[in-house]
Design goal:
alpha+beta; 3 helices; 5 strands
């Protein structure tokens, strides 16, 4: 499993994983690329390095199996908030662990000691309206 920062070509995979992830606990949210882009990526405060993707690589291919969006809480510094964490439903359980470990390492390197994670920890970043 490899964790890296977001790039524009990842958008269709993020949408697929969002829909797959949230469908596992309720009705299909069925967002599309335009809606995710407007809600998150087009915001003036969006930083591509705060959106991480997890890739699983086999001999034949590389597949994005999870992603997370995190930020430093402007209301409660120094706290890192994981606003979203989506993984596929095919058993790549280590993707969530690897993504959270990457956020923890980046936070620790930045001197942040508090990490807040939960179902849609979104105060102002556009994700809550997508569920």
């Amino acid at each position: 499993m490899t964790v890296r920062s977001f790039c524009n070509a990842d958008l269709p995979h993020l949408v697929r994983l969002w829909n797959e992830h949230w469908s596992a606990i309720g009705p299909d949210p069925m967002i599309d690329m335009a809606r995710l882009e407007q809600a998150v990526l087009a915001r003036t405060f969006f930083a591509p390095d705060s959106l991480l993707v997890a890739e699983s690589t086999t001999a034949d291919s590389t597949e994005i199996v999870g992603w997370c969006l995190y930020y430093v809480d402007p209301h409660c510094p120094p706290t890192t908030v994981v606003a979203a964490l989506c993984v596929n439903q095919r058993g790549d359980a280590s993707a969530a662990d690897d993504l959270l470990n990457a956020v923890e390492c980046k936070s620790t390197a930045a001197g942040i000691e508090c990490l807040c994670v939960g179902a849609i920890r979104d105060r102002e970043f556009g994700l809550a309206g997508l569920c």
